[in-house]
Amino acid sequence: MEDHPEVGQNNCEFLRIMSPQCSCISVDTPQKGVEQLRQGIPDLVVVDLQFGTVGGEQSAKPGLELLKQIFEYYPTVNILVYTSEPTFLRQLIPQISKYQGGFAVVNKMERRSAFLEGARCAIEGQLKVHRELMKEMQLSQQDLEILDLLCNHALTDRAIAERMHVSLKTAQNYVQRLKVKLDIEHLDDGQNVNPRVAICMTAMGRKLVVC
């Protein structure tokens, strides 16, 4: 969903690098995007936040309203937000924190390799946002349940999957989302701290779990 035809076409070409057989449909307004979603749920939705207005200016309001509709009516579709103004997403932090589908954010100023990495993360059901947004991410009730199983019961990803009646991949995504929301992914590699231990240490420090 991109109002610049050249950018939309380039996005399709890069997605075909990742999956040569993929079918890519480019639309230039949020309204057309909603109509397309009504016809079928794709593996990935790529959304720009800013669209042109009647006055010729760019506005993030249509893109944000589009995301709100997707969150409400298509809560598991995988989304890649590809925008030059990712900070506009601050007002959607509560919805993003609870979103069930894959959700990645890539700045248009980054290299195209970042676009492909963001698309891959979203399709795999992961959460990937810019660090300035991470600190504002909120933990859902499900996140707190995962923390309890991880820290108080020391369950493995497979055991968490069995306890919650989900696939192993889904359980791994639950843990990956905790790393993002708690900013564990940006720990200094030189500390050699196990990520699961780091999650629990951070959660205990924030009084999110009591061991």
TrEMBL record:
Alphabetized Gene3D superfamilies for the sequence: 3.40.50.2300, Winged helix-like DNA-binding domain superfamily/Winged helix DNA-binding domain
Location of 4-aspartylphosphate modifications: 48
Annotated GO biological process: phosphorelay signal transduction system; regulation of DNA-templated transcription
PROSITE patterns found in the cross-reference section: RESPONSE_REGULATORY
Keywords carried by this UniProt record: DNA-binding, Phosphoprotein, Transcription, Transcription regulation
Response regulatory domain sequence ranges: 1-123
Signal sequence, start to end: none
Annotated GO MF terms: DNA binding
Protein name in the entry: LuxR family transcriptional regulator
